[in-house]
Amino acid sequence: MKSEHRDMIYKDCEQVTANSVHLLSALRGQCILITGGTGFVGTWLAEMITFLNDNHDFNTQLILLSGRANNFSAKAPHLADRNDITLIESDIRNVVDIPNEVEWIIHAAGNPDNRLHASDPLRTIQVIVKGTDTILEVATRLPDLKKFLNISSGLVYGSQPWELETIPESFMGSLNCDSIRSAYAEAKRMGETLCAVYRNQHRLPVVNARPFAFIGPYQLLDRPWAINNFIRDSLLGGPIRILGDGETVRSYMYPSDMAWWLLRILVQGTVGASYNVGSPHGVTLQKLAKKIAGHSPVKSEILSGLSSDRSLGRSKFIPDVRLAKNALDLCINVDLDSAIKRTIVWNRNYC
Amino acid sequence: MISNILISDPTLRDGSHAVSHQLNAHQIASYTAAADAAGIPIVEVGHGNGLGASSLQIGESLLDDTTILKIARENLIHSKLGIHVMPGIATINKDLKKALSMGVDVFRVACHCTEADITQRHISFIRNKGKEVYGVLMMNHMAPKDVLVEEAYKMQSYGADGVLLYDSAGASIPSDVKEKIELLVKSLEIQVGYHAHNNLGLAIANSITAVQAGATILDGTVRGFGAGAGNAQLEVLVPVLEKMGYSTGVDFYKLLDLSDFAERELMKVVPSIKPDSVCSALAGIFSGFSKHVQRISKEYGVDSRDVWFELGRRKIVAGQEDIIIEVAVKLAAEGGKGQ
């Protein structure tokens, strides 16, 4: 990894932890296991924990469990080679045992790539449902488990009604359970139900996080999401193509905020509660494309795939984060413009 | 407000079937230059079965892909250069990278209507290069609307700019088109398009029905030059759309001139609806089988109409041409009579 990238991550972690490090003191000298530990979420959590170890003497041990742990050295050698990180290569569905010293678990396994969900919905469901059941079962045998954070998804709510400004955690959802398009979301819902059952039957201290959308370092630009594609298109010289309706509304959180929020929910979240994780500041895809074109080093034209009189698939996906704000005093430290600028810098050699 | 319909012209690609892929350099250069002058937004070129398809089995092209793309690229100034791609025939390393380097603007990645999974790598690769890429569900009459939506959704998730239904066998009637396009438009977040064949004389009607159901992309070829009974006739389709209040951006007079030129310079025979075309459509078999069916039926002394309907009963699709012989042998053994 380039030193400028490492510097960027360092500054990101420094920004979100400023004057607040004491709020994660419960993790000092502890051992945390992260499933899906080498993915986007896991890597950012590892960056944040190692930042705390290096700069605030946390002395926290991390175990990253992943089906692709052996590839982590190529992705993040500065993390893979550290003494405070242990890599375990295993399919989440086949985990039999984890070290007894694990005191905190963050269950982040499950690929959010909707290309995989479309092509292989059975595998998508099995990894999430069987994987969640497996890791919960294993967790019941730990002697000193303090908290289990289940990384669910904002997609458990289904389609956000257009008239609903933001989605609160209490929204009951609107999923169509007999569609293959619901495979990921329904599996995540089942994952949350499994967590509730283990909390009840086994008294596991489980808390849920429901992530929405993110943009920043470590997120691959070939992922099939609007903002990733817009940034990639702009770095390729454009045009930036809006495939769906330009009035569709999304919101994006920068990953250092995401990592900070998740660790705070792990430590201070109420057992049994679910917290939305994301930005409450919506932006239309049209405005988003303009922002990206404005920040890109390459001048890019913006093209809309639809005529102006069409409104196909106009949708909205924005979390209500008042619970995180009011209960845990969490806020957005990195605004969308900064997130876009940093993502462009991170990826500027993309081609 | 006037709606724009994106017109794509596969005369040189689908018409390639009609002349056994024997279009020469002069024909390609002249046609692409004239189509560009007529303001046709996308001009598709290549072997009838797309990039990398020239082969003994499918039919050898007079010109290789590189030559065809080079000629077309030189002559398309304003129009976009499009190609047809079928995973399994065209590969990423051998064919797509070459096409990208030669300046192809629009890629159509096609598969049988129930096999969208096989398009993932091709669509994602092209999308990640920042180019326009559309998913194509061929032989769409063979799948119900719900299945088509699920397959189209896969293509959308892979990054396709739009999804087109191809009526490869010319087997659809307007009510089929209406219900399928309406559901696709309702279910997808990207554009939907339609590619008609005229085996039952319904290519224009089906195309118009598709637009009324919400499609925003239509294919048409001059004089209907294409496989079997041909496609939606472009010089008819464009004025009909304009008369209905849609905008295409195509220059009508130049389009008429283009169609005269194409009849004179490209076609040995202008496509027409022959009994063979009707039988293939009713059987639901791709018109591209026509020459094989005629030849093999004659060789084995069986009625080609019986061959078509037996192939239809077996739900044969492109790539299974060998079964024509199996069917002919069976019919011959039964005394030359079908069921």
Distinctive features:
heterodimer; A: 351 residues; alpha/beta; 12 helices; 39% helix; B: 339 residues; TIM Barrel; Helicase, Ruva Protein, domain 3; eight-stranded parallel barrel; two-stranded parallel ribbon; 46% helix
Short description:
The complex is a heterodimer of chains A (351) and B (339). With 351 residues, chain A is α/β, with parallel strands linked by helices.
Tell me about this structure:
The complex is a heterodimer of chains A (351) and B (339). By secondary structure, chain A is of the alpha/beta class. Helices cover 39% and strands 13% of the residues of chain A. Chain A contains twelve helices and twelve strands. In chain A, helix 7 links the parallel strand 5 (147-151) and strand 6. In chain A, helix 2 crosses helix 9 and helix 6 (121-139) runs parallel beside helix 7 (183-201). The two termini of chain A are 17 Å apart. Chain B is α/β, with parallel strands linked by helices. Chain B folds into two domains: 6-265, Aldolase class I (TIM Barrel, Alpha-Beta Barrel); 275-333, Helicase, Ruva Protein, domain 3 (Orthogonal Bundle), CATH 1.10.8. Helices cover 46% and strands 13% of the residues of chain B. Chain B contains 14 helices and ten strands. In chain B, helix 5 (120-128) links the parallel strand 5 (106-112) and strand 6 (132-138). In chain B, helix 7 runs parallel beside helix 8 (203-212), helix 12 runs parallel beside helix 14 (322-333) and helix 13 (304-313) packs across helix 14 (322-333). The longest helix of chain B has 14 residues, at 145-158. Chains A and B meet through helix 5 and helix 8 of A and strand 1, helix 5 and helix 6 of B.
